[in-house]
Amino acid sequence: MFGAASLNGRGLIAISPVIWNDAQWLCDDKRRTALTTNGKNGNGNQSYFSTKYRDYANYGDYAPQIRYAEVLLTLAEASFAAQEDLIKAVLMERRIEFLCEGKRWADISRLATDATYGTGGIPAKAVNGADGLAIYNCKGRLI
């Protein structure tokens, strides 16, 4: 589902332009080039896709349920609860680090009603269709 149709994946779930265009995700972050590719979705339109899972034929890719990065980010979030900027940075890092790993829904659910960090409910999905790669514009600064 995460692989580009042009690379023999199903092309069903592209990376959201909302996170791709977020200025907090630096343009030269290695995860942009090492773990993503552009390709065609199921409708033949260009989008960005995750390359974390590549065994499109046998579905044999390792899909971890928890990684050490998640443990560290959860610990950092819990340890520094009084520092609002740090928590916001940790939450953004969770969005980037766990892209296409199915962890976003849990964060949305647990923070939906939080007055400081909440999403205000379930956010609308970004339009990802005929505009192709034009809707993906990196806005983060370069290091």
Features:
mainly alpha; 143 residues; 5 helices; 2 domains
The shape, in one word, is: globular
Q: What is the number of helices?
A: 5
Going across the biggest sheet, name each strand in turn: 1-2
Return the string of H and E elements. HHEEHHH
Structural class: mainly alpha
- First-last Cα distance: 33 Å
Task: Please compute the radius of gyration using only Cα atoms.
Answer: 16 Å
- List the domain count as a whole number: 2
Which regions contain 5 or more consecutive residues with pLDDT less than 50? none
Mean pLDDT metric:
83
Molecular structure report:
The protein has a two-stranded antiparallel ribbon with strand order 1-2. The protein is globular, with a radius of gyration of 16 Å. The protein has five helices and two strands, in the order ααββααα. The termini are far apart. Helix 3 runs antiparallel to helix 4. It has two domains: 1-59, no CATH class; 64-121, no CATH class. Strand 1 and strand 2 (46-50) form a beta hairpin. The protein is mainly α. The protein has helices at residues 17-20, 30-34, 68-79, 84-97, 104-111, and strands at residues 36-40, 46-50.
Summarize, please.
The protein is mainly alpha-helical and 143 residues long. It has helices spanning 17-20, 30-34, 68-79, 84-97, 104-111; strands spanning 36-40, 46-50. It folds into two domains: 1-59, no CATH class; 64-121, no CATH class.
List the helices and strands and how they pair.
Blueprint: H1 17-20, H2 30-34, E1 36-40, E2 46-50, H3 68-79, H4 84-97, H5 104-111
Helix pairs in contact: 3-4
